[in-house]
Amino acid sequence: MKKSITFKNVLFTAIIISIFSTISFSAQSGYINYVTDSLEVPIRTGAGYQYKIKKMIRSGSKVTILEVNQKRWAKVTYQHKGQTLNGWMPIITLQNTPITKTLLKKQIQKTSSIEKQHNQLKVEMTTLDERYKETSEELKKIKTENFQLESDLDELKSISGRSIQINQQNEKNIIEIKKLTTENSTIKDRLSQANDVVQRQWFLTGGGVLLLGLLLGRFFRIPTKKTRWDTL
Predict the structure, then answer these.
(1) Three-class SS of 97-128
(2) 26, 171, 191, 228: least buried by Cβ within 10 Å?
(3) Element spanning 76, H or E
(4) What are phi and psi of 69, to 5 degrees?
């Protein structure tokens, strides 16, 4: 019965060692490993439990494997108070990734950083949203002002077009007035010349009539009786 129990214990121990050996298969010389997630792990002066404990290393401490012997003990080097020390540890106490506590701390820091960035992005988003609203209002005002300016411009174009037409019409009227003035002057000159001719004709006619009257008076004068010289 004792032999059976002993055999089972040995078999169970072999299975556990085999499992841990498989987990720590990546433990090789030159690679950085981490102390397993336990409170403290002893580091010894030699490769075996019979050797003196040199230092108790906290879980998560970083060590560098220098060599691994056939008994699955690893010679490691580590930093302690600015000094580089070395010692021996069983492979089953090492793993090639940081412990959960360290990973959790990093994840919390990462999450906090992401939350901080998220909050900052929310603030920036709010600011951008406010700027967008302000820009939209300004754009509406600019569109309204632009529409008013376009209306004013159309009105100015219309007034300008009418002004041009009026100016052109005024130029035509001025030309027509100048033409009429010239014609009026010509007519006045002609009327003045005609008046002079008429006056000369009337003068000549009056003179001719007077001369005719004198001539008629001369030739058709009634003769009178002669009187004596001594009588009145």
Answers:
(1) CCCHHHHHHHHHHHHHHHHHHHHHHHHHHHHH
(2) 228
(3) strand 73-80
(4) -95, 180
Q: Does the residue 138 lie in any domain?
A: yes
User: With 60 as the cut, is the pLDDT of residue 227 above it?
Assistant: no
> What SS3 class is residue 223?
coil
- Kindly report, residue by residue over 60-87, the tens digit of the pLDDT: 788 999 999 998 999 999 888 888 889 9
For residues 152 and 113, state if they share a domain. yes
**Are 86 and 73 spatial neighbours (Cβ–Cβ below 8 Å)?**
no
pTM exceeding 0.85: no
Single residue among 181, 197, 226 that ends a domain in this structure: 181
Q: Is residue 208 part of a domain?
A: no
Average pLDDT over residues 189-199: 78
Q: Report the greatest alpha carbon distance in the chain.
A: 230
Cβ(91)–Cβ(67) below 8 Å: no
List the single range of 11-15, 55-59, 86-90, 95-99 with lowest mean pLDDT.
11-15
Assess whether 6 and 85 both reside in one domain.
yes
Q: Does residue 108 form part of some domain?
A: yes
Amino acid making up residue 147: F
